């Protein structure tokens, strides 16, 4: 649906802590059948297509060769795109002149589309609008479905809490129920209208900043003849539902702010995937599942694949251990020798595991939180892992397989004034070797302009395995012993987490021009400011990178130090910095930093990059 929700429901701690959800049953373990398990499966990306403008809905059918994508397009006029099933945009602006089109369906060679207070009928031959129905009393018409046997059209009005139909050439209210305050997706199956309720009322309506689990929505069956509304119990408060359709005889639904896909089969429900937030009104042609992502401006085609249930320790070591799995909040690894480690939400995850019967049994902590112990059912595909607590009867979560997370390091050195040249010589020789090592993404040596005895080393490595190889190589070269006499005190090393990473790192080894300004700023903030501070600094980072005078701006949290952060900045010249400080968002950030930062914790280094 079209709204400004930018929230993620964090399931990690719930899952690791062992909260139960009695609605999720055990998963079938039939490995002999080559057929896809119809009520429980995973998905793999078949293709991914960018270029849309806030796509909210997609039409798909086994009886029609095209996909039709509704682009709501923010405040600009919306439009319909026509896309082939192999992932090629045939016509981005197939139908224009719309406001904010959303759900659609086809009946007798006509595409019906909901568009705020109107329903348009569009000619499939040329994309032209044949006819429109309007009701100015509607809040915002969202999804649309048609009973193919009778031709009856059903349209949901999410903020209005109503379901419309078309009678006597007019839009009229067909149903309004207190049980469904925010009807979103609608789908006809036999003589039943399935309605996805987006969420429950809590006084904040659709524009609430956060959706708590107790406010989640459910699916309902409505008998079209009697209009009786019945809760689908297996869906009760499972998600903030945006899309619903039928796949292989079971209901398939998407949860927008949580990025989840569920199937519902009678009294059973299964979490089949967890992707990015903003997954909107999904659809299927019976073979492929098509999912628009309204915030990411893309359409993804998912191929269903079977879960592989892990039932032995040997299987787990072969198929799951020693791989990183995670989501947008972080990643973790369970090593084949029984160790759990990782980082989620800036908190360090630590623990141990063993295998008991058919289950992965772990004991772990997240930061200072003791997560206790639980035995977990493990299901995997080539790209995903699903964990179901309490031996397959509790809460479930799906993680993507991740690359070994990059490791970013910032080390500071205090050097005796008469040993500066020795230190520089040894470190530059070491830097030259390290840059050639497998796994090194970035390695730079800096000297403080104002205090020449202060040096910094900044590096990024591909991951833990290659970093271990690097550390062993450094030890063999004896660099630590050769610079030991130059140190005033032991070097201090910080492990950094980039809060807003760029798609690629800056691998440049070019010497810095004399006019350029480089600096590192390390600091700690007061308790109670973290959420506001991180949100502002991430936005600040995005805007700063767009400035003409900025070369690099990175905002890091410091691992293992709850409220400690670092900034790395590189500017073309002093004038660029002056311009930056005049920006309105910079002034907002500066005001917040003055309130939040503990003054005694500040370390600021204006540096020169040192090269041979």
Written account of the structure:
The protein is mostly beta strands. The protein has 9 helices and 41 strands. The strands form 8 sheets. Strands 26-27-28-29-30-31-32-33 form an 8-stranded antiparallel β-barrel. Strand 12 and strand 13 form a beta hairpin. The longest helix has 15 residues. The termini are far apart.
> Which structural category fits the helices and strands?
mainly beta
Shape annotation: globular
Q: What proportion of the residues is helical, as a percent range? A: 10-25%
Number of beta-strand segments? 41
Low-pLDDT sequence parts: 1-35
Question: What value does the average pLDDT take?
Answer: 89
Notable features of this structure?
612 residues; mainly beta; eight-stranded antiparallel beta barrel; 9 helices; globular
Can I get a quick summary?
14% of the residues lie in helices and 45% in strands. With 612 residues, it is mostly beta strands.
Helices and strands in order:
Elements: H1 12-17, E1 42-50, E2 55-61, E3 64-71, E4 78-84, E5 89-98, E6 101-107, E7 110-115, E8 118-123, E9 129-134, E10 141-146, E11 153-157, E12 162-167, E13 170-176, E14 183-189, E15 192-197, E16 219-223, E17 229-231, E18 241-247, E19 250-255, E20 260-265, E21 268-274, E22 283-284, E23 289-293, E24 298-305, E25 308-310, H2 313-319, E26 324-327, E27 330-334, E28 339-344, E29 347-356, E30 359-366, E31 369-380, E32 384-388, H3 389-392, E33 396-402, E34 407-414, H4 420-434, E35 440-448, E36 454-461, H5 464-477, H6 479-483, E37 492-498, E38 517-524, H7 530-544, E39 550-558, E40 564-571, H8 574-582, H9 584-596, E41 603-610
Antiparallel strand pairs: 1-24, 2-3, 3-4, 4-5, 6-7, 7-8, 8-9, 10-11, 11-12, 12-13, 14-15, 15-16, 16-17, 18-19, 19-20, 20-21, 22-23, 23-24, 25-31, 26-27, 26-33, 27-28, 28-29, 29-30, 30-31, 31-32, 32-33, 34-36, 34-37, 35-36, 35-41, 37-39, 38-40, 38-41, 39-40
Helix pairs in contact: 7-9
């Amino acid at each position: 649906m079209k709204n400004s929700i930018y929230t993620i429901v964090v399931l990690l701690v719930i899952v690791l802590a062992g909260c139960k959800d009695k609605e999720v049953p055990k998963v079938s373990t039939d490995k002999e059948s080559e057929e896809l398990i119809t009520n429980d499966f995973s998905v793999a990306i078949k293709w991914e297509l960018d270029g849309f403008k806030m796509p909210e809905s997609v039409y798909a059918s086994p009886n029609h060769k095209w996909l039709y994508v509704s682009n709501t397009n923010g405040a600009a006029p919306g439009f319909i795109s026509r896309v082939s099933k192999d992932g090629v945009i045939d016509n981005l602006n197939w139908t224009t002149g719309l406001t904010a089109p959303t759900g659609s369906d086809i009946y007798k060679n006509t595409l019906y589309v909901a568009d705020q207070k109107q329903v348009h009928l569009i000619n499939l031959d040329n994309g032209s609008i044949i006819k429109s129905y309007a009701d100015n009393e509607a809040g915002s018409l969202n999804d649309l479905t048609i009973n193919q046997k009778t031709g009856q059209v059903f349209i949901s009005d999410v903020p209005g809490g109503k379901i419309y139909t078309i009678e006597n050439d007019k839009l009229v209210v067909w149903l309004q129920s207190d049980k469904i305050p925010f009807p979103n997706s609608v789908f006809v199956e036999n003589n039943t209208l399935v309605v996805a309720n987006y969420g429950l009322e809590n006084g904040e309506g659709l524009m609430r900043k956060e959706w708590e689990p107790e406010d989640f929505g459910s699916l309902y069956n409505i008998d079209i003849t009697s209009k009786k509304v019945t809760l689908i119990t297996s869906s009760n408060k499972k998600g903030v539902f945006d899309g619903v359709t039928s796949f292989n005889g079971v209901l398939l639904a998407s949860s927008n702010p949580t990025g989840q896909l569920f199937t519902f089969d009678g009294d059973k429900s299964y979490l089949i995937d967890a992707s990015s937030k903003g997954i909107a009104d999904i659809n299927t042609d019976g073979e492929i599942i098509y999912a628009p992502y309204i915030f990411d401006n893309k359409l993804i085609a998912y191929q269903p694949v079977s879960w592989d249930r892990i039932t032995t320790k040997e299987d787990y070591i072969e198929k799951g251990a020693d791989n990183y799995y995670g989501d947008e909040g972080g990643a973790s690894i369970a090593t084949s020798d029984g160790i759990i480690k990782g980082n989620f939400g800036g908190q360090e995850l630590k623990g141990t595991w063993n295998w008991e019967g058919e289950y992965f049994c772990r004991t772990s902590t997240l930061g200072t939180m003791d997560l206790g112990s639980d035995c977990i059912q493990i299901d995997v595909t080539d790209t995903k892992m699903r964990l179901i607590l309490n031996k397959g009867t509790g809460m479930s979560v799906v993680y993507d397989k991740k690359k070994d997370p990059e490791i970013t390091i910032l080390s500071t050195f205090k050097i005796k004034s008469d040993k500066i040249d020795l230190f520089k010589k040894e470190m530059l020789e070491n830097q030259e070797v390290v840059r050639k090592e497998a796994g090194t993404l970035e390695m730079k040596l800096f000297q403080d302009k104002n205090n020449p005895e202060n040096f910094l080393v900044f590096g990024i490595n591909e991951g833990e395995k290659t970093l271990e190889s690097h550390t062993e190589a450094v030890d063999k070269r004896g660099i630590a012993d050769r610079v030991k006499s130059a140190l005033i005190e032991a070097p201090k090393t910080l492990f950094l987490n980039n809060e807003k990473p760029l798609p690629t790192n800056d691998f440049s080894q070019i010497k810095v021009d004399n006019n350029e300004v480089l600096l590192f700023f390390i600091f700690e903030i007061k308790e109670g400011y973290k959420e506001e501070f991180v949100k502002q600094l991430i936005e600040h980072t995005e805007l700063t990178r767009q400035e003409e005078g900025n070369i690099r701006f990175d905002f890091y949290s410091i691992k293992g130090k709850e409220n400690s952060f670092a900034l790395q900045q590189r500017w073309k010249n002093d004038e660029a910095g002056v311009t930056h400080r005049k920006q309105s968002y910079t002034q907002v950030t500066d005001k917040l930093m003055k309130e939040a930062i503990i003054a005694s914790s500040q370390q600021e280094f204006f540096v020169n990059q040192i090269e041979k």
